[in-house]
Amino acid sequence: MNITKNIGILNALIRITIGLTVLSWSTAKMVKFPWRDSYLFIAICGAMKVAEGIVRFCPVTALYERYQEMEQQQQKAPEHSGEATNNDIDQVLPYNPS
Length: 98
Fold this sequence. Notes:
- There is one protein chain.
- Helices cover 68% and strands 0% of the residues.
- The protein has helices at 9-32, 38-55, 59-76, 86-92.
């Protein structure tokens, strides 16, 4: 798997800023309410956004781009003309020895 940069500089800076804001907010709340697990989850999400900004790679964006490429390949695939040939019937129907 080749990881290449798929987000721009401005997007990375926004992700770092928002991620650090969310991370600092959630850790402050965790100090006040340590029994709440939701603040730990939010802290992990904030840290993930900071990491995405530093590395400049977003896995969700990569999945979306891969989906778009697959959609374009399916649109370029040749369509059947509607006539069923003998080869098409052999491929669809299984062999019945009886």
